[in-house]
Amino acid sequence: MNKNHFETDAIRTQIERTEFLEHSAPLYLSSSFVFEDAEDMRASFAEEKERNLYSRFTNPNTTEFVDKVCKMEGAEAGYAFATGMSAVFSTFAALLNSGDHVVSARSVFGSTHALFTKFLPKWNIETSYFKVNEVDKIESLIQPNTKILFAETPTNPAVDVLDLEYLGEVAKKHNLTLVIDNCFATPYLQKPIDFGAHIVVHSATKLMDGQGRVLGGVAVGPKDLIREIYLFSRNTGPALSPFNAWVLSKSLETLAVRVDRHCENALKVAEFLETHSQVNFVKYPFLKSHPQYKVAKKQMKQGGSIVAFEIKGGVEAGRNFLNNIKMCSLSANLGDTRTIVTHPASTTHSKLSEEDRLEVGISDGLVRVSVGLENVSDVINDLNQALSS
Ligand SMILES: *Cc1c(COP(=O)(O)O)cnc(C)c1O
């Protein structure tokens, strides 16, 4: 069988058609599915045939979405979730037992940090953190009960990059399951499984939808591990709704063209910011000044949609900058068509001590820009006038 390219698979994945032979996949808004007879029902429950029983388990729309993500990530199987966090939580809950241990980068999404520090300990699962610039310490954190090595790359909000090839080698050597949150890069820019990751999780809410409409999540990986995640999830109920799956499947058809433009715009924004006198430094994976530029070039096709920079003047300057923004949005989301600016030190990370913030690369003046799909000169003009005010 000839293998199609990424963009083609995103569009030409086989869909379930009704008698009307729809060109674009229809929406299967149905909680359950009917059986032909008693024998069909018995065989279906015994899992002797693959078919839809109940939309908490599978649904044609969620299957279409999962199949596309599996093709994109080069994974065997997957399961779709209502949110990115339910994908992250269910992966840990399904694969870990009480007494197990996790090693993770310290720079992780806020709710994932809460999961590691507040909730997993309730089931006697502890997490040890390494700093993004101290990956050489990972092996010293591994214990006999360590089961999962976890990381996000690029990280949020400081846009650090972790070496996936190295993480893959460490996981292999110590027989750990490597779980990568690939939300910032998307499978279009980076395929963690090629570097030895076992499970890839996503918040589909971000670039996969890309238009700020629906929440969703997905976990993909080898059949045996996904089976564990599937059994946990079909019994505990974090399934993606058919409607959101339908929206997300259509969004994936344009992922490559959207992400191409996001990256093109983001690089221009990063290059502009680097020349601005009010800016101390800019972090963008494909700028030569990025501390992990070489690693980014090795594992990413382009630099992504997120740019971080430090404005001169600390917290006050950061808040003033947000107040002077005219066109871009002040919003908690990212990976949207609309450019979004945030100031982590006074918002998402304000509860952390200054020391803890600096540990994850959030200085007082750090601003995160999720560069959208507007004409980039309008975005740059807005940032420029806000920096100069
Ligand atoms: C947003 C995000 C999540 C959580 O996803 P939700 O869809 O909001 O639950 C997890 N990881 C990363 C890196 C994110 O950006």
What's a quick, concise take on this entry?
The chain is an alpha/beta fold and 389 residues long. The chain has 15 helices and 11 strands. The protein folds into 2 domains: 6-252, Type I PLP-dependent aspartate aminotransferase-like (Major domain) (Aspartate Aminotransferase, domain 2, 3-Layer(aba) Sandwich); 255-388, Aspartate Aminotransferase, domain 1, CATH 3.90.1150.
Topology:
Layout: H1 6-12, H2 38-45, H3 60-73, E1 77-81, H4 84-95, E2 101-105, H5 110-119, E3 126-130, H6 138-141, E4 146-152, H7 164-173, E5 177-181, H8 186-189, E6 199-203, E7 217-221, H9 223-236, H10 242-252, H11 255-274, E8 279-283, H12 293-299, E9 306-311, H13 314-324, E10 340-342, H14 354-359, E11 366-370, H15 376-388
Parallel strand pairs: 2-3, 2-4, 4-5, 5-6
Antiparallel strand pairs: 1-7, 6-7, 8-9, 9-11, 10-11
Helix pairs in contact: 3-10, 4-9, 11-15, 13-15
Bound molecules: pyridoxal-5'-phosphate.
Total domain count? 2
| Share in helix | 25-40%
Q: Can you tell me the overall shape?
A: globular
The CATH architecture classification of the largest domain is: 3-Layer(aba) Sandwich
Please give the alpha-carbon distance between the first and last residues.
59 Å
The biggest beta sheet reads: 7 strands, mixed
- Tally of individual helices: 15
In CATH, what is the class of the largest domain?
Alpha Beta
Instruction: Provide the low-confidence segments as ranges.
Output: none
Q: Which ligands appear in the coordinates?
A: pyridoxal-5'-phosphate
Q: Please give the number of β-strands.
A: 11
GO molecular function, one term: transaminase activity
Pathway: Amino-acid biosynthesis; L-methionine biosynthesis via de novo pathway; L-homocysteine from O-succinyl-L-homoserine: step 1/1
Enzyme class: transferase
EC number: 2.5.1.-
